[in-house]
Amino acid sequence: MEPNDKIVIIGVTGYIGAWIAKQLTDMGYNHIVGTYRNEAKAQQLQTLLPNVNFYKANIGETENWHEVLREAKWIFNQGSGFSPNDKTFKDRGRTKQKGIRLLLQLAVDSGSVKKFVHTTAESTIAYGNEDPSKTTFTEDDWTNEDRGGLFDHNMVSKTMEERAAWSFIQSHENISNIIMTTIHPTHVMGPSFVPWHNDMIYAMLRGDRAMADSQLYGVDVRDAAAMNITLMKSTAANGKRHFASAFKSTYSTLLNLIKEQFTDEQIKTVLGDAARIIPGNDAADLLGHCHSTSYYQDMVPRMLNRVVYKTNHPEAYAYEYTEPNTTVIQAMEKMLKDKNNYTKFQT
């Protein structure tokens, strides 16, 4: 990428997207375009990054995309197609498939786009596993979106979306030979660049509920953004899938760290009544009667700390990751700071 190249960040107001825009700006790139859905978020981010150009554009629709993609060379995709009418996991997947195919066709039609870095998730790799003995996963693995009983719609819809993207890229429809690389973040944590948050700490630990302790792989949001940029610049990454994962921890470890560093009042401000965590061994024993289900076969090995994520492409990790305690503490501090502003940015 050259400093004057047109770079498009789809979903620029998102958790990772905003940090990509910030880091590219700091690196001297001066022709950045970001797409958004939420007007209030875009206006706020514009005050923080005044040199970024903003366009309202929805994946799955055609409005504004020709202008967004005109003369664009590099696309960072943080978005997905969405429809409020979707009823099932498969419905959501079909909406995402339609959206990504239309987006890639528009990129081809532009005649200028060279490379497309698509952020998906670990959920397209390591779930729906029907082999209880399999506990190590690499980028060669795929989630089985047809496995009955999958409990998270992202495991289905994001997998369907990614398969559709690769199918397009590798087909005769890709007449301009756009290159694609995918990045698969694990649990994304760390301080949001903008005054709204999507932090996995909040998603995992908030609320007065019981939950099974489990291992988790995590990555700082700033590192996930940096890896997007690294993959865009790397010809070695072309046509490959990449885990984005920095550390391995557990829910209880994260919650204990938070309790050591923050007061009860601060924790309640961010998380409400924090979740009550059941030891993984105890939870696994309680689930013994449903050992043939996809939930058991996906989650119990994680409760017992047996799952390993191993990247095929260690050369893509071209920088040092943020240390996990720093990630967690800075995430909590930022959520405390932004708590009073968060609700006004909700759609």
TrEMBL record:
It holds the Pfam family Epimerase. This is NAD-dependent epimerase/dehydratase domain-containing protein. The keyword Oxidoreductase applies. InterPro entries: Epimerase_deHydtase, NAD(P)-bd_dom_sf, NAD(P)_dehydrat-like. GO terms for molecular function: oxidoreductase activity, acting on the CH-OH group of donors, NAD or NADP as acceptor. The keyword Oxidoreductase applies. Residues 7-231 form the NAD-dependent epimerase/dehydratase domain. Belongs to the NAD(P)-dependent epimerase/dehydratase family. Dihydroflavonol-4-reductase subfamily. Keywords: Oxidoreductase. It comes from Paenibacillus xylanivorans. It comes from the Bacteria.
